[in-house]
Amino acid sequence: MRKQFTMDDVPVLYEDNHIIVVLKPQNIPVQEDESGDVDLLTLLKGYVKEKYNKPGNAFVGLVHRLDRTTGGVMVFARNTKSAARLSEAFANREVTKEYLAVLCGTPKAKEGKLVNYLKKNPQNNTVYLATEVTDGAKRAELEYKVLATTPLTSLVKVRLGTGRSHQIRVQFSGINTPVFGDARYGGDKYGKHNLALWASRLVFTHPVTKDRMIFFVYPPESVPWTDFDTNNLVGAKKEW
9 catalytic, yes or no? Predict the structure, then answer.
């Protein structure tokens, strides 16, 4: 039976009248889906409605997404003006999104850029590598740095250039280093575990005050993250 999440599972990192920044737990959908499970957006609307005694339905704007199995930092809008401005910032790639991931194996290059074309199969919700001329394929870019290794795995920092569905998972699987715990793309060779992909750092301009907002959250203290001293890895937290 799947866990039914509540706001007790969702740490609020920052909030004001314009935005709310939270730590999304793994295995909760960001918005309502066919599973019928409670979703993060619904929880946040209930939280805002209760905390601020809002009549009717409270507004919380979804401006970016994470896969259900991915945890980490997310920002939501508290009003329509902020939602429009943040959505535009994400669309224009003015927001820095960095991830930590544990890979099965180690990429041949200790740092580099991956560029692929990806196409989604909506029938089975799977994304696969395609070519530039494949109908419906979208260009996907990311940069990565290897921060640490074990004999079987590696910890990498990832910066997205594009925000495609399952992008990090598919692109690393494409170089034979799938994300640890990713049964869908070949990362389950060491048993069943949560997906080792974590949205660790988010940097954006506040939609109203124009302040530079920087948030960093450490990954869970569980396998395989505990194979690395993530709290003391300077490269995980510092500027790219």
Answer: no
